[in-house]
Amino acid sequence: MMYSSRRKPVLYFKEDRRNETPKAPRPEERNQLCSEKCTVYKLFGLCVVLVLVSLLWLQLSCTGDMSRVVVDDRHLLHQPCLLERQASAADDPSWGPHKLALLIPFRERFEELLVFVPFMHTFLNNKKILHKIFVINQMDHYRFNRASLINVGYTESGNDTDYIAMHDVDLLPLNEALDYGFPEEGPFHVASPELHPLYHYKAYVGGILLLTKQHYHMCNGMSNRFWGWGREDDEFYRRLRTAGLQLFRPSGIKTGYKTFRHIHDPAWRKRDQKRVAAQKQEQFKVDPEGGLTNLQYKLESRQELTISGAPVTVLNTKLECDTDKTPWCLLN
Questions:
Q1: pLDDT tens-digit profile of 40-61?
Q2: Are 294 and 224 in contact (CB under 8 A)?
Q3: Looking at residue 195, what DSSP letter applies?
Q4: Nearest to 303 by CA among 313, 291, 290
Q5: pLDDT per residue over 76-92, tens digit each?
Q6: Whole-angstrom distance, CA of residue 196 vs CA of residue 200
Q7: What pLDDT, on a 0 to 100 scale, did the predictor assign at position 277?
Q8: Where are the beta strands (DSSP E) in 139-235?
Q9: How far apart are CA 229 and CA 147, in angstroms?
Q10: Residue range 23-31: average pLDDT?
Q11: Contacts of 118 (CB under 8 A, 6+ apart)
Q12: What is the pTM of this model?
């Protein structure tokens, strides 16, 4: 194969260069090379620092787009920055010394939970109520037991909270004048019959009820006999009276049945209202012995989550049932 005369000298030139002894760089060349390397290292280090700072800022910042919670066409709430709220609570004595454990008995109602948690976190922060949200998630295969789950929430809520709110996940307070403060004088029924959108009888204490932990303990908690939907609140009303506790309700609220928004869709998620065998008679009886003292459950796990910037503790719980005493706990 023929090569052009222009390429051969180049090849011979490279081979000759490899055989030559390399010359030591002059001092000015060595200083210039060192300066260039140092500049590259400095730029690389600066880039790394900027990236780390940016990631940290994204982790800690609270953006408006991520924090907005839409309740309906007329109610749009903004989720405040959690860090700012914590700093305010620590520095501002107007937040008060008490801390609320918001207890949410729960099973498979995630659409409602995604709305409820950030909404209530914002609502309570705006009212300067120190709080911690607990979702007591029933994981067993028995029928839903709201009362037992509230007992679990009370038991697992820790010593840093001194009062509880028994709160339905589908009920959102729309009037900021509603009081969620420490109920020192006695149980405070926030969702009173005059304000609740669905239930209006005098003995109703469901929906949202605030109690000090001391008062809840005086009642021995709630009865564990109520599997399925309903009646556990009516039995608890009798416990309040037996314990000699006076029930308080809101006053001066002018919004009537529009005070709350009920976000449950009965057509999509029907309630378990079956009454099986002796349950029809037992549901109207007082349970004088049951409650915190005979609560049986297993805490499978405790998870710390954040929903749209709102912190929440999920207690994954398996309840236990004595089928000889309450056979209606089983799904039929």
A1: 677 777 777 777 766 665 555 4
A2: yes
A3: T
A4: 313
A5: 344 445 545 555 565 67
A6: 7
A7: 59
A8: 163-167, 171-173, 188-189, 208-212
A9: 10
A10: 58
A11: 67, 69, 79, 307, 308, 309, 310
A12: 0.73
Q: Which residue, chain included where needed, has tokens 């037996």?
A: 242
Give residue 199's pLDDT band: very low, low, confident or very high (50, 70, 90): confident
Helix, coil or strand: residue 105:
strand
Report residue 143 CA to chain centroid gap.
23
Q: Which of 55, 98, 109, 63 is nearest to 82 (CA)?
A: 63
| β-bridge mates for residue 36, sequence order | none
Of 76, 70, 99, whose CA–CA distance to 157 is shortest?
99
Strand stretches in 139-247, DSSP E = 163-167, 171-173, 188-189, 208-212
- Residue where the block lists tokens 């730029």: 43
Q: For 264-299, how does the pLDDT look when each residue is reduced to its tens digit (9 = 90+)?
A: 665 555 555 565 555 555 655 778 889 999 999 999
The pairing of beta strand 163-167 with beta strand 208-212? antiparallel
Joined together, the tokens standing for residue 241 give 């009276």
Length of the chain equals 332
